[in-house]
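Page 37, continued from 36.
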């Protein structure tokens, strides 16, 4: 009876080690991918615009007359908003800003968007 209990404990220990080893083997590729930026917009996420300090950036999810949604945050527009290309800082039409595009923005003291920059035009 004592030998059976010892074999059972040894079996339990071996199975625990095998399950732990299996978990490490399976999760290793996930940890390797974690360091890579797989966003399709990764080239824009840290791009600087000469002479402009952006208050935020993200994917434009919706744009309406008075508000827009950028990276899941509803942001109101100021009374006057300027629209720019992030590539060269030139003024562009508001109609170029559509859902799914990567944008940067500047806000005023009321946290309203005063300037919107389009990346990857």
């Amino acid at each position: 009876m004592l030998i059976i209990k010892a074999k059972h404990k040894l079996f339990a220990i071996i199975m625990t080690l095998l399950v732990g080893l299996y978990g490490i083997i399976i999760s290793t590729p996930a940890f390797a991918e974690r360091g890579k930026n797989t966003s399709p917009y990764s080239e824009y996420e840290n791009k600087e615009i000469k002479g402009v300090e952006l208050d935020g950036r993200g994917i434009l999810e919706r744009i309406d007359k008075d508000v827009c949604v950028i990276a899941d945050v509803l942001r109101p527009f100021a009374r006057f908003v300027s629209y720019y290309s992030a590539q060269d800082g030139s003024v562009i039409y508001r109609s170029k800003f559509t859902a799914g595009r990567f944008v940067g923005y500047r806000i005023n003291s009321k946290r309203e968007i005063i300037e919107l920059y389009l990346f990857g035009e």
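The first strand starts at residue 56 and ends at 63. Flag for discussion at group meeting. The beta strands are 56-63, 67-70, 73-85, 102-107, 113-118.
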